[in-house]
Design goal:
heterodimer, A: 193 residues, mainly alpha, Rna Polymerase Sigma Factor, Chain: A, Arc Repressor Mutant, subunit A, B: 209 residues
Chain lengths: 193, 209
C-alpha cells in the first residue's frame, strides 16, 4: 500500500511555485493547500511570541490575509515559509507595540498546557523564573531566543526573517542568554547543591 | 550555573514555555478565506453551527428552485395557458444559477478535494476512522443533493458530481482494516476519471465567476 500511497501523492503533489501561481490565478484550493502547509508553524510562532491563544489565532489569520493580499510581491528570493514568518513577526510586533498590556498579561490558565509528561525534572520554581525572565527580555532578544532556542530556527533563518545579519542574530542570542543567566543567578546555588 | 545546566533549562523551556494549544485551523481558514476571497462570512465561535444551518438552508432553497425549474421546463404549451407560459418560461430560463449555489458548490468542491487529497496519508497513518469516513458520508450526501439541484444543470459539473458520487461511495465503504484493494480501487477511480484536476478546475472556474 505504501507504494500506492506514494505514487498517488506524487501524482497530485504540486510544487510551491505552482501553488503560488494558482493562488494568484484565484484558485482557492491552492490557497488552502498553502495554508494547510504553513499555518501550524505560523500559529506556533505567534503563540510563542504572544502567549495568548486568541491573539495567536488573530495574528495567524492576519498573517495569511496579508500574505494572500501581497503574494504577487513574493519573488521567491527566500523560502515562502521565511516570508510568511517575517510577516508573522511583523504582525505580532506591531500589535504588541500598540497594546502594551500584553507584556504584563498573565497567561490564562486555560492556555497553560499540562507540563507533566514534558517535564524534564526541572525545578518548577526555576522553570517559572526562566519563563518570566524570557517574558521580560527586550523584544529583539526575546524574539531571537524564542525563534532559536524554543522553536528551533537556525541563525540563517532568523536573520532572513528579521532582516538582520547572521552575526547580529548570534550576538543578540548571546546577549539574551547572558541576561537570562543573570536573572536565574540567585537560584543557581540551590540547584547545584 | 554551569553551561550544561543552563542548556538543560533551555531545552526544558522549549517543551514548556508557552506551549501552543491545538487551535481550530478550519475555523481560522474560514476567517482567512472570508477576508481574502470574499467567501460568505462565518463567525469563528459559532462556525460549526452556522455553517451547518447555512448549508442546509442553501440546499433546501436550491432543491426547491431546481424542482420548480424542472417542472416549468417540462410543461407543454397545451397544459398551460399561453399567456402565462411564455413569460414564465422565459423568466425562469433566464435566471442565472442562484448565487448561494456558487458558494455552496465552491465550498463543497474545496472540502471534497481536501478529503480526497488527504485520503492516502490518512489511510497510511491509520486515521481513516469513523470521523473521517463520517465526513466522507456527509460529502456524499451533499453530492447527491447537488446532483438534484440547479448546480448540476451544467453538464461538466454534473459529470464531475457523478464521478465524485462514485468515489465518495467507495470511500465511505472503506473498512477499518484499511483494505489495500479498496484503496487501490479508489486511487484507480480517481486517476481514470481525472477527478482531482477536474475538481481544481471546477473550483477555479467558480471562483473566477
Amino acid at each position: 500500500m505504501a507504494n500506492t500511497v506514494v505514487a498517488f501523492q506524487s501524482a497530485y503533489r504540486v510544487s510551491e511555485p505552482d501553488l503560488i501561481a494558482r493562488v494568484l490565478a484565484g484558485d482557492r484550493i491552492a490557497a488552502r493547500e498553502l495554508y494547510d502547509a504553513h499555518s501550524p508553524r505560523v500559529y506556533r510562532l505567534a503563540f510563542r511570541l504572544t502567549g495568548d491563544a486568541d491573539l495567536a489565532r488573530e495574528f495567524t489569520q492576519d498573517t495569511f490575509v496579508r500574505a494572500f493580499a501581497q503574494l504577487a510581491r513574493f519573488r521567491g528570493d527566500s523560502a515562502l515559509s521565511t516570508w510568511l514568518h517575517r510577516i508573522t513577526v511583523t504582525v505580532v510586533a506591531n500589535a504588541m507595540r500598540k497594546v502594551k498590556r500584553f507584556r504584563e498579561r498573565e497567561t490564562d490558565l486555560e492556555d497553560v498546557h499540562p507540563l507533566g509528561s514534558d517535564s524534564m525534572g526541572v525545578d518548577p520554581v526555576l522553570r517559572e523564573r526562566l519563563h518570566r525572565a524570557i517574558d521580560q527580555l527586550p523584544e529583539i532578544y526575546r524574539t531571537t531566543v524564542i525563534m532559536h532556542d524554543i522553536e528551533g530556527y537556525t541563525h540563517t533563518e532568523i536573520a532572513e526573517v528579521l532582516g538582520v545579519a547572521e552575526g547580529t542574530c548570534k550576538s543578540r542570542l548571546s546577549q539574551a542568554r547572558a541576561q537570562l543567566r543573570t536573572a536565574l543567578a540567585d537560584l543557581a546555588p540551590e540547584l547545584e547543591s | 550555573m554551569t553551561d550544561d545546566r543552563f542548556d538543560e533549562l533551555m531545552r526544558d523551556a522549549a517543551q514548556t514555555y508557552r506551549k501552543p494549544p491545538q487551535p481550530d485551523f478550519e475555523a481560522m481558514w474560514n476567517a482567512v478565506a472570508s477576508e481574502s476571497f470574499g467567501v460568505a462570512n462565518m463567525t469563528r465561535r459559532s462556525f460549526r453551527f452556522s455553517r451547518g444551518i447555512g448549508i442546509a438552508a442553501t440546499l433546501v432553497l436550491g432543491i426547491g428552485i431546481g424542482r420548480a425549474t424542472v417542472t416549468l421546463k417540462g410543461a407543454t404549451p397545451k397544459e398551460v395557458p399561453v399567456v402565462a407560459v411564455a413569460p414564465a418560461t422565459a423568466r425562469i430560463d433566464s435566471l442565472p444559477e442562484p448565487a448561494p449555489y456558487s458558494t455552496e458548490t465552491s465550498q463543497y468542491l474545496g472540502q471534497t478535494a481536501a478529503l480526497l487529497i488527504a485520503l492516502p496519508s490518512e489511510v497510511k497513518a491509520g486515521r481513516a476512522n469513523g470521523q473521517f469516513l463520517g465526513r466522507a458520508g456527509e460529502l456524499l450526501t451533499r453530492t447527491r443533493l447537488l446532483l438534484d439541484s440547479p448546480a448540476a444543470n451544467d453538464p461538466t459539473m454534473r459529470n464531475l458530481l457523478e464521478d465524485l458520487e462514485v468515489v465518495l461511495a467507495q470511500v465511505v465503504h472503506l473498512d477499518n482494516n484499511q483494505n489495500r484493494t479498496e484503496l487501490d480501487l479508489i486511487n484507480r477511480a480517481l486517476e481514470q476519471r481525472d477527478v482531482i484536476p477536474r475538481l481544481r478546475t471546477a473550483a477555479a472556474d467558480i471562483s473566477a465567476n
